[in-house]
């Protein structure tokens, strides 16, 4: 039975669901928008400052049938955000097709480290140094979000920005635990380089999920 279930997960008919919740998008272009979040377990990118490390081990999160995930989502919002973990660890084709069949707008937050699957209305690409994005996703990203933990991340940000399309919106976002140190640096950098915008994790300031 375990092998059969794994085959269903590999085909994207089931996904390791960590959590799902209705809240306000706190980051990037759609901040302030009501959205239903689907957090998929599984990630091997391994950022030391990740604030959802409990998502990394997919085995800890129950394989859940796509129809059940979609059935819950349609009750709450017309905007769905698929996040992780790293959701592109898994095939997103069936999940996104069923969500869109219900008239929902479907967004993804991804490091881009794996093949882009699924059909998306908005792609937030947040590259990580430990595992580079695929070439394909750079030109499809609607927004580029670079997490700034230290000064070296500004160089990384410019390297990543050189790979996305001219239409991609560029964001610098302070890593939460180091925000007091890095916010002044980010503000100064954006003022000197206005192609960038500041993104904050406003949901944490609002004390919501």
What does this 3D model show about the protein?
The chain is built from seven helices and nine strands. With 209 residues, the protein is an alpha/beta fold. Helix 2 packs parallel to helix 3 (93-101). It is globular. It has a single domain, classed as Aldolase class I (TIM Barrel, Alpha-Beta Barrel), CATH 3.20.20.70. Strands 3-1-2-4-5-6-7-8-9 form a nine-stranded mixed β-sheet. The mean pLDDT is 94. It is an enzyme of class 4 (lyase). Pathway: Purine metabolism; 7-cyano-7-deazaguanine biosynthesis. This is 7-carboxy-7-deazaguanine synthase.
Task: List the defining traits of the structure above.
nine-stranded mixed sheet; about 210 residues; alpha/beta; 7 helices; single chain; TIM Barrel
E-strand count: 9
Number of domains: 1
Discrete helix count = 7
- End-to-end separation: 35 Å
Structural category is alpha/beta
* Mean of pLDDT: 94
Shape: globular
Order of helices and strands: HEEEHEHEEHEHEHEH
Helix content: 25-40%
Strand order of the largest sheet: 3-1-2-4-5-6-7-8-9
CATH-assigned homologous superfamily: Aldolase class I
- Strand percentage lies at 15-25%
CATH topology type? TIM Barrel
Largest sheet: 9 strands, mixed
CATH architecture: Alpha-Beta Barrel
Task: Report the radius of gyration as a whole number of Å.
Answer: 17 Å
Organism: Gilvirhabdus luticola
Protein name: 7-carboxy-7-deazaguanine synthase
EC number: 4.3.99.3
Pathway: Purine metabolism; 7-cyano-7-deazaguanine biosynthesis
């Amino acid at each position: 039975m375990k092998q059969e279930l794994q085959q269903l997960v590999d085909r994207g008919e089931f996904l390791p669901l960590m959590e799902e919740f209705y809240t306000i998008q706190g980051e990037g272009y759609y901040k302030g928008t009501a959205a239903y979040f689907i957090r998929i377990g599984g990630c091997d990118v391994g950022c030391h400052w990740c604030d959802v490390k409990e998502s990394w081990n997919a085995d800890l999160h129950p394989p859940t049938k796509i129809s059940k995930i979609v059935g819950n989502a349609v009750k709450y919002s017309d905007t769905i955000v698929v996040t992780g973990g790293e959701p592109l660890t898994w095939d997103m084709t069936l999940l996104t097709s069923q969500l869109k069949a219900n008239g929902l707008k479907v967004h993804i937050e991804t490091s881009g480290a794996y093949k882009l699957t699924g059909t998306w209305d908005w792609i937030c690409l947040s590259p990580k140094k430990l595992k580079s994005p695929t070439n394909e996703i750079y030109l499809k990203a609607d927004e580029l979000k670079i997490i700034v933990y230290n000064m070296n991340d500004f160089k990384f940000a410019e390297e990543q920005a050189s790979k996305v399309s001219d239409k991609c919106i560029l964001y610098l976002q302070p890593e939460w635990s180091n925000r007091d140190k890095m916010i002044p640096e980010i503000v100064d950098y954006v003022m000197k380089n206005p192609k960038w915008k500041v993104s904050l994790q406003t949901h944490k300031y609002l004390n919501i999920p």
